[in-house]
Design brief:
This protein has 385 residues and is an alpha/beta fold. 45% of the residues lie in helices and 16% in strands. A seven-stranded parallel sheet has the order 3-2-1-4-5-6-7, sandwiched between helices. Helix 3 runs parallel beside helix 4 and helix 9 crosses helix 15. It is globular, with a radius of gyration of 22 Å.
Length: 385
């Protein structure tokens, strides 16, 4: 028994410590959580490092350690500068032997400490960072981030991103291999699903759903709320967070929208999927107003697929390809409220086509899941264990 305990201690000491960095508060980032769990399964001792934000909920138990940095600044240039300094100090004072940086805003400290220690540094780009709408009208800020990208990306050991469109852009810019790991969920068990009545969803109405952690301005949510004035026998659920949510709540106070729109705050993924499972239609309505949006592939698309929920989406390239390849919903061509309302009516009236979508979703769910997608990550990590 004593020998076995010594052996366990020896194995724990021998494990490489992988430090995973992200700018958010760790609560609802499913991609990062899945990455950390796969690192644990591959034999790493994992620490996930993020920020503590005002109102950050407590974290559930996980098979890896978590740490939230306390910050003085929560937005703007000073926040980014403070984050770089705090990350560097924290990383250099810990024994990390493997670094996984999520997005460009946490990469530089990982790269510097990684090079000091001769440790591998992997970069996972969740979006085309220098194409985000926040930088579109700020050329100096965009140039600064682009210079940082041009300095860092050629130096990381592996470059990873979420879809083929972004990967192809990076390949052309940097002439290097880029791995694609899509942001797909695990296969969802349909056991222990609560009923509509238990969740408070009106049984007699069609349930429409917009979910996500980035329900922001100019991502189609405003027009979707307007479309509800033209839609009958339906209730719209908006679940998640984003900067346009306060405006949406004001819009929903209109008399004609009374009791037609339900807002729920972000919640653990398993709880969210209870609602997704019951939705008659799921929405992803990003506008192609920035390079980042034009190249996006929101993870909500894959949640809808796993929950057998047909979709109505805008003609964003990667999203449209998925919807049309598997024939699981409608692609609208503009964001007028009338167009969205007509698409809702069209989707729900053709019962035969709707039934085909539901069957096609079962096939898509067998293809587009983490159990398949993580094989790319497993092959990648096998080089560093």
């Amino acid at each position: 028994m004593q020998y076995f305990q010594i052996l366990l201690i020896f194995v724990a000491v021998m494990k490489k410590q992988a430090i995973v960095t992200v700018i958010n508060d760790l609560y609802s980032d499913r991609r990062v959580d899945k990455t950390c769990r796969e690192l644990v399964n591959s034999g790493f001792e994992v620490i996930l490092l993020g920020r503590k934000l005002p109102g950050s909920p407590p974290l559930d138990a996980r098979p890896y350690r978590t740490y939230r940095l306390s910050m003085i600044f929560y937005s703007g240039v000073l926040m980014y500068l403070e984050l770089q300094i705090r990350l560097f100090i924290w990383l250099i004072s810990h024994k990390g032997q493997f670094f996984w940086a999520n997005d460009l805003d946490t990469l530089l400290p990982c790269l510097l400490v990684g090079k000091i220690r001769g440790a591998p540094v992997l970069q996972d780009s969740h979006e085309y960072f220098t194409g985000v709408p926040e930088l579109k009208h700020h050329p100096l800020k965009r140039k600064t981030w682009k210079k940082l990208e041009q300095y860092c990306y050629p130096k990381v050991d592996e470059l990873i991103t979420v879809n083929e469109s972004i990967a192809e852009l990076f390949r052309k810019e940097y002439g290097r291999e880029v791995h694609v790991i899509r942001n797909v969920p695990e296969k969802i068990s349909m056991k222990n699903i609560k009923s509509r009545a238990e969740l408070g969803i009106p049984v007699q109405l069609q349930m429409l759903l917009l979910q996500g952690a980035g329900i922001n301005v100019q991502r189609g949510a405003e027009e979707l709320v307007q479309a509800m004035q033209l839609t009958e026998n339906a209730v719209l659920y908006i679940i998640g967070s984003g900067d346009v949510v306060p405006k949406l709540k004001q819009m929903a106070e209109a008399p004609e929208l009374k009791d037609r729109i339900v807002f729920l705050d972000r919640m653990p993924h398993d709880e969210l999927l209870q609602y997704t499972f019951h939705a008659d239609l799921g929405f992803s309505l990003d506008k192609p107003l920035s390079m980042n949006y034009r190249l996006s592939l929101p993870n909500k698309i894959f949640d809808y697929i796993q929950c057998n929920t047909p979709v109505i989406v805008s003609p964003i390239k990667e999203v449209q390809q998925v919807v049309e390849k598997y024939n699981i919903g409608l692609v609208i061509q503009d964001h007028h409220a009338e167009t969205i309302a007509n698409a809702i009516s069209e989707a729900m009236k053709d019962k035969e086509r709707y039934a085909r979508w539901k069957e096609n979703l079962k096939f898509a769910a067998e293809k587009l899941n983490w159990e398949n997608e993580k094989q790319v990550l497993q092959r990648l990590l096998s080089k560093y264990v």
